[in-house]
Amino acid sequence: MNSVVKIIPQNSHRFRDGEREMLFHVPTSSVFELDQASSAALESPNASDVDEALLDDFQALQIVGRDSSEKSTIPDIGDLPLATLVLNVNTGCNLSCSYCYKEDLDTPANSQRMSFDTAKGSIEMLIAESPDQPRYNLVFFGGEPLTNMPLIKEVVAYAEHRFESLGKPVDFSLTTNATMLTPEIVDFFQQHRIGVAISMDGPETIHNKNRITVGGQGTYHVVRRKVDYLLQNYNARPVGARVTLTKGTTDIEAIWDHLKNEVGFDEVGFAPVTSGDVSDYNLPEDELQQVFDNMKALGQRYIDAACNNINIGFSNFHQILTDIHEGTKKALPCGAGVGMVAIDHAGGVNLCHRFTGSDLPLFGSVSSGLDTDGLKAFLSERLDRADKGCNTCWIRNLCSGGCYHESYARYNDPQQPTYHYCDLMRDWIDFALQGYARIMRENPEFIARVIAPRRGTQ
Ligand code: SF4
Ligand code: SF4
After folding, report:
1. Does the pLDDT at position 359 exceed 70?
2. Where in the chain are the domains?
């Protein structure tokens, strides 16, 4: 017997790829092509000529329902599969970038360095908490991590030996402002395959707006010189540029062009600031719209190039294509507190590197151990979407409410979803789905060569 069939709008999103009608299935983050019958059934599911078997399939996929009651379940967190530690090796930085968000940032003279005992204790805590991970990652963070190279060298030597004795690979990475790079350090990175990302904001005029010395001088020339040396003498892993976009800086294509084509980075990634502690630097609404429009313009160049089997190295688009291709279903926005925690210089366990020095309570310490119950309680709060707009949002399994730190900085509540740019995010993901469908149709080889091998990388 026929009962009234309703579309469940939050479980599917339809889009076009040229002539093709496509469907993004939200519960599984999968992309399907719709045939004519399926498309017609989704237009008018209660029409008399709709095939019952098709509706049963749709019901099994939760795209349509004969029962209008909404069900919201909170996934069980289970064990916390900790595999990554961010070590804040020094609160001090030799620069004084005007937009810096670090609450525990110090000048070099007042900097607080992590001790080797704390770093070693952190690694032992990681192994004790999560002995069964297939591989482990250590990320060096600051301040400026290169201000504590002696510790980085000690930690690398200790960790290589310790993880080798367990038969497990360990991977190292860091983000640096590049100003303290030396040939000896580059050599060390090469020998130990340490992943390197460089904070650089674009051509001289843009970079020098905010990335300045303590005395207020622009740093473009020194960064450029050091990066040139790095790119010529280091090839252990691809080197990416991380660009911070603040008020007045929206020209993504020009920045990408400079960093990719003139400087020679392998990849360029953009971080728009919407909720920095220094609110003067936040992108106002109209500029944030421009940023997303310009991200789409660069995304279009990415798609066109990918169809010709060329990778233009736009990290944000790589990431979203990877999520779509892998069918990522994020119950939480990122690995913070689940697969990764950050250890501050004194050994406190923080949700992630952006919370060190903040008022958010710690989740244990290297000496007392990980506060697993506290972390699970914190994460469960975000997992509960029942009273949040995210519950009915079609990108909920890719966005998951957004970055805790952005919410913390903007609303003083890390659990509040980042509602201030939901429409822009949905439009960006709709655009990425269209790009993914086109690349898969015109040149699936690109996805196999460039996107699929990124599985498990960040
Ligand atoms: S924060 Fe906004 S875009 Fe993200 S899942 Fe929630 S409602 Fe959707
Ligand atoms: S909370 Fe935000 S800053 Fe921290 S890891 Fe997650 S996305 Fe990144």
Report:
1. yes
2. 1-69
